[in-house]
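C-alpha cells incoming
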C-alpha cells in the first residue's frame, strides 16, 4: 500500500521560508515521479512543482525563483523548499507520486496523494 506523508507546514510571516517533506512508502518499483500541488479555500487544486526520477524539474510561474523541488531517491523522500513566501502562497500543500520516468506536471497524471499540510503566510 502506497503512503505519502507530508510534513513541515506551519505559520510563517511574509518573506519567510519553509521546507516541506514528503516521505513515501510502499512504492516498490522504480522509477516514479513526484509532485507538489496546493489548494486554497474556494479554489481548485493547482500544480506547484514536479520532479522526475532522474531529477528533471518543473516549477509553476507563480513560484519560480522562490520554490525549489528536490528529491532523495535513497530515502524515498521529496522536498519543497519555499523561500520569500507571500500571503497568496497560503494553502494546503499536497504531495503526489506515480510510477513512470517522465516529468509529470498535471494533477491528473498522479495516482497517489498525501493528506496535505497547511501552509499559512501571515503577519
Amino acid at each position: 500500500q502506497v503512503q505519502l506523508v507530508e510534513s513541515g507546514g506551519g505559520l510563517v510571516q511574509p518573506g519567510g521560508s519553509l521546507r516541506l517533506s514528503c516521505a513515501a512508502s510502499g512504492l516498490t518499483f522504480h522509477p516514479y515521479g513526484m509532485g507538489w500541488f496546493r489548494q486554497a479555500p474556494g479554489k481548485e487544486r493547482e500544480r506547484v512543482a514536479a520532479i522526475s526520477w532522474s531529477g528533471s524539474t518543473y516549477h509553476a510561474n507563480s513560484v519560480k525563483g522562490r520554490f525549489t523541488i528536490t528529491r532523495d531517491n535513497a530515502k524515498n523522500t521529496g522536498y519543497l523548499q519555499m523561500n520569500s513566501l507571500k500571503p497568496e502562497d497560503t494553502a494546503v500543500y499536497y504531495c503526489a507520486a506515480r510510477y513512470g520516468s517522465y516529468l509529470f506536471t498535471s494533477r491528473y497524471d498522479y495516482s497517489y496523494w498525501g493528506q496535505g499540510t497547511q501552509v499559512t503566510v501571515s503577519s
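note: The mean pLDDT is 96.
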